[in-house]
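Structure request: Phospholipid-transporting ATPase, Drosophila gunungcola.
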Amino acid sequence: MGKFFGSLLRKRGSRVSTINDWLQIQIGGPEDVKKKRPKGQNRIKSTKYTLITFLPQNLLEQFRRIANFYFLVMTIISLLIDSPVSPMTSLLPLVFVIAVTAAKQGYEDILRYRTDNVVNSSPVTVIRDGKEAIVKSEDVCCGDLIVVERDCDVPCDLVLLRSTDPHGKCFITTANLDGESNLKTLMVPRDLPTVDLPEMHKLGMIECESPTTDLYSFNGKIELKGGEGRVLPLSAENVLLRGSRVKNTECVIGCAVYTGMISKLQLNSRLTRNKNASSEIYINRFLIVILVALIAIVTLLYFLKRYNELFVIPKLTYLGDATDSYSLKQFLQDYLSFLILFNYLIPISLYVTIELQRVIGSWFMEWDLELYEKETDQPCVVNTSNLNEELGQINILFSDKTGTLTKNEMNFQQCSIDGSKFLFRKTRLEEEETKALLDINKFSASQRIFFQALSICHTVQVASGSLEEADAGNAKKELLASAKTGPPEMYSISDITEESHNSSQQSELNVSHTIESSLSGHPNGANSTAVSSDVNPLLVSSDSYGIERRKRPVVVKRSPNFARSNRMHNAPAIETNGSQTLDPNGASSGVDPMQTAPNYRPISLQFRRSTSEKDLPQSWEAQNGQAPGHRRAHSYGAPNAYLSNPISASTPPTSVLFRSTSTASRESYAAPTFTRQPTFLVRAESQRRKNEIRDFIFTLDYQASSPDEKALVEACANLGMVYTGDDDETLRVRIVPPHMDYKRPFAKPKEETFQRLHVLEFTSDRKRMSVIVRDTEGRKWIYTKGAESYVFPLCANSSAQLVSKTDAHISEFARLGLRTLAIARRLIAEEEYQDFLIELGQANSSLENRKQLSEECYSKIESNLDLLGATAVEDALQDDVADTLVSLQAAGIKIWVLTGDKVETALNIALSCGHIPPDAKKYFIIDCKNREEMLLHLNALDREIIFGIGQECALLIDGKSLGVALAEASSEFRDVAVKCTAVLCCRLSPLQKSEVVSLIKSSNENYNTASIGDGANDVSMIQEAHVGIGIMGREGRQAARCADFAFAKFCMLKRLLLVHGHYHSVRLSLLVLYFFYKNIVFMGIMFLFQFHTLFSSSSVYDSLFLTLYNVIYTSLPILFIAISEKPYTEEKLMRTPQLYKKNTDNKQLHWPYFLMWVLFAIYHAVIIFYFAFCLFSYNNVILNYGQTVAFSCFGTLLIWTVVVVVNLKLWLESMYLSFWYIFTIVISILGFIITTVIYNVINLDYDTDIYWAYNNLLASLPVWLWILLTSVACLVPDYTIRMLQRALEIKSFSIFPGKQRKLKMREKLEDTYL
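Returned structure:
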């Protein structure tokens, strides 16, 4: 593979060579300036065709279908022989079907081409030969230096070489890659020398591995030029992948390594296998049966014709002498003539009608308002319309838990510290045994160390920049507001206080929005009339204190690697020294020199960096610049709820607040009005300061790689340990002390700093992450956080007793459905740390097995840990998840939940959401080590199910045991597990999830499976199942993009399956059976006609009727009912999930149904033909003017009756009758009449002569009576059987054994004699 990519790149002319499957890329591109760079190297292509290949490739794909290929052969044969009918009868329908399908596929490919062009033509800034240039994205070459600015997408895979961040960091989001929307941190390679920008192309050579699909690994190195000659290792943290987006970093520069179709994103975007609906198996079976019947009919008629030629025709002297010789040519002529005559037994328009039905049906799902989520403006999305009917065939549903059954919104609930359990109470801890409330001042040493570990053992980023910037930004906003409307209240993190424990127990009363009165005078001695609001001062708006989305301050902070910038962002002006300001609405009383700076960047790349993200205008912002409140903002009171002293730019902030009465509050509580009641004031101030803490945390805007990590950091901040960001790997944690009296001056909080030395990243194999830090005393510590099953074995023997207590607490947390993590740490000796550095350096320098060597190095340092405790966070259930799961189980769908959580946590969630019935017998398979143990468990479970006499049984298995089952006893595990009511698989990796789905698909029972998930880790499971369903959740859109169907909430799955799945299954079954029925009626009459023509292979129909029968006469009603049929109302299907079972396993496409439709078709053909035959044989004087009818009237009368009967038959079989549907039936019959009238008045001597024949029939009253009589005779049995089934509630076709009935009989026999 590497050689292929290398040769491909060399052919394109780039400076790329391969040595032992490794790529060598010159930084900055080829050194030869005169050499022309290749174009299109970074072009992406998602189209299937080109202008040259479209026609041959599309035709090849279409003629792979048996019906299309069959009609192609028939058309060729009809052109080669003396055809009994016009070749156009086969050619025109074939051309119509091929053209419609080709137009549909061509249009879809044009849309893909336009989308590709938008991406390929997007401008990219590159540095070539020390000069900046803007080129199209498709013209980027390997080795080019690419400039990527904030909020821009990365155009190809880059090695990061320069960042405006002073510490060499780059923050990105990778939602397009792995579905995760959280910030990730990349780094410029360590020890990379700083050179001027014009000299960057002389840095050296990058040597890296050939591109792979793994998004999380990269092995390479930089060989520096010049006298240094050093080699710097490259890893995944140094690479920006195509599809990621730069955030919170003003600008970065990288060297292109993988471009175009060999970038990691494109390698992961390869088309997966095509999924086909199970109904196509039955359609192909029916086609084979009809094809065999066709060959049998043709062969029978041929031999009957030869018999007549040998024994009958010689006796009929008026026919002349019989031919003496019989050649091969005559044989082919006779045999193929019959084949051409009956080729309409194969319904050519079946496929194109199915395609149209599926596409229109997918539109109905996307238009369904019940599948539309108003909050996010997200409708249902159908990515694969050819699986619509599969939604009604699901037997087993595989579901993820986190983000699918739960909301993926984490809230810190409980913790275990030093063997004691505590409950989290917003700003305090409550000890479970004593019920004592502890604030940060009363924490013991172990408690402080525990939360200190939580506040630094993470990779959380503060999106708003440093704390000083956030404080400064808020202060400037308040100064701006003060200049406009009134005096704001100035607070920073140091102003956030909490009352003492004596008053804390009463502070939970929600009185923050109750407005009280106070007669206290202004501190300056004057009564204040200024108005303030109950809006958090940290988020105060500049326009009448309206709540506005937080605007992060723009603070210029330059990297030493970049010159001062001349280009500035258009940020709102702020007043710093009394100068005039520009308000958010654009009105200004002066000119800010920063606003008049030109918006450009000179060639020398003079960048400036804002250390905080500047919000871009959003689509929902009002035209006047105001925006809705922060999404986490709470309801605040009305203006004039607070009064404070006027504050000017030079006035220090005060901590004393006074209240005035207000009746305009947005929220009202039944609390009495009071005056001078300090207790209530303290309570109100306590609640207000809780809100301040919460709002300031939102102001910091923590960005984490997982919601669990963010919940833990926010919990620490609420308790008073506020993580305020990192500066050059220096972690800062502020300790905010509480105070008893709200009027007491605020003391400056203490700040703890730690130097972060290393981050040992979390992986799905390690199930933990660690950080190595150095405290202010120079000691080095390692803090580890992860799954208890992986952390406990790393703890020292001295922690054995604590491990036992903590494990018991973790089990209690899990039974409450909480997600748990264990926390540990230890002191690292200097000598041990130096050894670790040496081993880690060797591992990073290795180009092979780098990951394995690094993890071995990590394992050595992560040992002999001292356990600190454990955390428990809650993940709330999705809306209506219990009702959805219970309904699906009632519909006969078995549900398997595949999760990475531990067994106890998953079990509690499964019980609370209804996945496992409360009275079900639960069987656990935990820590199974080999095949023998697994077989013992499976045999015991099998006996429990058999002798349980109908009792529901649930299986719970962990990842370790499942690995044994998949590797050593897969078939035994599958056969027993599918008998369980519910299956819960815990601690699974993404690969194991897909393996479980694949195992069930391999069953001989042919289960139809569906998988549903919301994260990138569910993609493999979603793509493996027969039907993949994605939820557009908090973990990104990767699952939704890879799924066949996607929507916003799990509860919508109920409607998708029970309503849309049921409807589409019924509709497709009716469509397929009706197509075979109407063609058998059509050709059945032709077959009977041959017995009365000495098997002469003559056609009873005119060629026009053969051509238009499937195109006009019978196509519209079946298409309409196939997209609108509703055997039950939507409400009944939602209330009665058991109705879903009526269509599973494609019951309505089984042989009994097909044979019944065939029998009706034969009956109708016999009735129509012999009624007409008798009419013409015994008395053919049926015309108004008393003349006998011609032979041309016979065929015309037959086709007229066929069109009427088959359309009325469809009306009889339909359940949902609408005026539009009846109109389609009427218009189809009228379409036959109109086309035939036009055709028969034109004297064409082309095929048969029906000149004026149909007009004579139309004018004949006996003909109309005959059609009425024939139609009634045909449809009376259909109507009678249908009414008897409804009146007597007879189950259809119960006399046929069928596959399901045979299986039930076999199971009953086995249970009886076991």
